[in-house]
Amino acid sequence: MMDTSLQTKFTHVKPNDTQYVEGGLRDFFVYRDLGVAGATNGKVIAQLVRANAAPEAGTGWHVHEAEFHIVYMLKGWAKFMYEDKETLVSAGDCVHQAPGIRHFLFDYSPDMEYLEVVGPADFGSIGVKGPCAAPAPALWA
């Protein structure tokens, strides 16, 4: 017998069904909802995230209140600090951000776009003290 507390709905979102919008976690990105949060009753969110403005100060050091978080880079690149390790994430790369890992997205390309899958859907972000300084972003030409 199926556990009804885990029930989800079928969803099929086509490219023109949802638009990129502002108002997500970061004001320098735009977000496109892929319908997963509604289909999973808030257990998981899947969204496309795209650069909307040049990096000035980045995200700052933070952790997410999430049980699961992956980033799959679709276009361009982003530079993160994960704890004290600088990490270049390029198109085709997939990163699993373990719960509680301190990180800082400090630079990205103008064409950066990634798929983000996070559980729960309403995950939070908490600023924390970082283990080291993060490099400055490069200027966009």
Structural summary, described in words:
By secondary structure, the chain is an all-beta fold. The chain contains one helix and ten strands; from the N terminus they run βαβββββββββ. It is 3% helix and 40% strand. The strands form three sheets. A five-stranded antiparallel beta sheet has the order 1-2-9-4-7. It has a single domain (14-127), classed as Jelly Rolls (Sandwich), CATH 2.60.120. The mean pLDDT is 94. The longest helix has 4 residues, at 36-39. The chain has one helix spanning 36-39; strands spanning 29-33, 45-51, 62-65, 68-75, 77-82, 85-90, 94-96, 103-108, 113-119, 124-127.
CATH class: Mainly Beta
**Helical coverage, percent range:** under 10%
- CATH fourth-tier homologous superfamily: Jelly Rolls
Q: Structural class from helices and strands?
A: mainly beta
Number of discrete domains: 1
Mean pLDDT: 94
Order of helices and strands: EHEEEEEEEEE
| Coarse morphology | globular
Unreliable parts: none
CATH topology: Jelly Rolls
Strand order of the largest sheet: 1-2-9-4-7
Q: What CATH architecture label applies?
A: Sandwich
Report on the biggest sheet.
Answer: 5 strands, antiparallel
H/I helix tally: 1
Strand content: 35-45%
Radius of gyration: 16 Å
Distance between the termini: 59 Å
User: Based on DSSP secondary structure assignment, what is the total number of beta strands?
Assistant: 10
